[in-house]
Prior knowledge:
The complex is a heterodimer of chains A (355) and B (287). Chain A is an alpha+beta fold and 355 residues long. In chain A, 26% of the residues lie in helices and 34% in strands.
Amino acid sequence: MSIEIRNISKRFGNFVALDNINLDIPTGELVALLGPSGCGKTTLLRIIAGMESADGGEVLFSGEDATHLHAREREVGFVFQHYALFRHMTVFENVAFGLRVKPRKERPSDAEIKRRVMELLSLVQLDWLADRYPSQLSGGQRQRIALARALAVEPKVLLLDEPFGALDTKVRKELRRWLRRLHDDMHISSVFVTHDQEEALEVADRVVVMNHGRIEQIGSPDEVYSSPASPFVYQFLGNVNVFHSRQQGAYAEVERGEVAEKATAFVRPHDIDITHQPSEDGLQAKVQHVHPIGPVVRIELLHGSEIIEVELSRERHELLQLTVGQAVWFRPRQMRVFGTDTSLRSTPEKQAFLF
Amino acid sequence: MKSTRATQEPVWVRYTLLTIGLSFLFFFLGLPLLAVFVEALAQGVPVYIEALKEPETASAIWLTVGIALAVLPFNIVFGVAAAWAIAKFEFKGKSLLITLIDLPFAVSPVVAGLIFILLFGSQGTFGEWLSEHDIKIIFAVPGMILATLFITFPFIARELIPLMQAQGKDEEEAAVSLGASGWQMFIRVTLPNIKWGLLYGVILSNARAMGEFGAVSVVSGHIRGETNTLPLHVEILYNEYNAIGAFAAASILALLALVTLVAKTIVEWRMKKETEMLNTVLAPEKT
Lengths: 355, 287
């Protein structure tokens, strides 16, 4: 089922949670709503689910108006951040709930319910826990049961609110991969909310980056990471060096102080080259710190009073053999320049700094 | 055993405090309770039983139980509805509603009784209309039920509001998104989650309903065998120097109190177990 969101707005008192949101989610896609807390992503998800009503705008399911459809009629599976399992029911009864509350005519027989529930429990690989209570499960197990419960009613859309937010890193990674597989097997549309950029980039087909109740960018994980549409997206997705600069012809002039036309250049730490030899389009700096972090080595360079973060691969670092206090030259391989109005400027062709 | 813990008080301090506490309990709670039974049984069990079989006493016992039972369904419905509204919704006037729920705790029971006299008494606001239609509220059982209702309605709501607030509305929302109707959600999800809290509130409000004196006294009119509840009857008997009768009736009230205490303890223990179950530390993920 496709979801279309048209001009959705929502306020809580004076706080604007959503400001005129438009978004299309085609059938079968796994979409991540990504943003810092308070950006409106959970509110948007709850409006799609029908648990919150928008102040204005429309929600369309498969092209049909669903704005005023009650949550129970939307055929939407919702997975909560804190699982919201029914604490007084066994795992089996939790998953069976959606089937048991169906109107008598549509309700499957007890044998059929048992078959379906056990099928779902083995899908989430937890059939051996059917008789336990939620309090006896670990966080990861609870989240998988919550998923099985949501899938029991065969929803057309699966909505997940920070599904892995309360889990530790290792379980989280496992569940992420598992969710991706599940989504591909079930042929449904899924939307999940997250504030973790790594999670969004790894799992989703498409990432919707939100900030202050607005959509900053919609695109594939690669698009939003390598060509961010706004300074916010640049800074939210991964580390970045910010240079206040002035664009002039093919060059971005990096400057401190007032200039006529201000612009800001963004360079990812791994897009910076370091050399020992002076180069004409490079800048000189001093090595201040060298931190080997797992597969990469993070270098802090001091240029004037500014600190520039550089990430090198281990091999590259072996070759350079940088030591603290050394003078080096650095040059960005790739960068983006935004004007003061946060509009994107044409990227300088020669990608160089000049003073 | 000698303890070396730094936070432990010396032995003599602990025993002194314990002695003070226990003797206070004995003199102010244990002794009076004992006296009730000793007085009631002063002339032997047969006389005690005779006193209870006295038609007026027997009718007082039944009226007390009857009023308590009549009040209960109203209290449950109101308590759950109010707690639900306060815990799960945001609306204007919410704090006003919370304050209103506490009103019966703040107002003297006698004033509570007077309110109903002013409303439904023969000189009251609705007095004329009521007498025209031949409906008796004041100095009759309906008035006593109303007064008891006023006194006891905060108990269940007070018990449920913090409980429901702590549980949040995630489970209810999950139930609705799974297709449950409002009623199914309440019966299958909300009610099982609050059942022990609800029972606790029921026990407390029941104890209060059976023991209420002030408010009921104002509206009852003290008609023997008709509008006399146990607490009122105890007073009447005592004023007539019928010590055995008074203490026998009082012993029934005391017994009811003891039953309440036991029930309350059991429910408290169950509630504690439930919360412990919810807060159990999770084993690390294995699969």
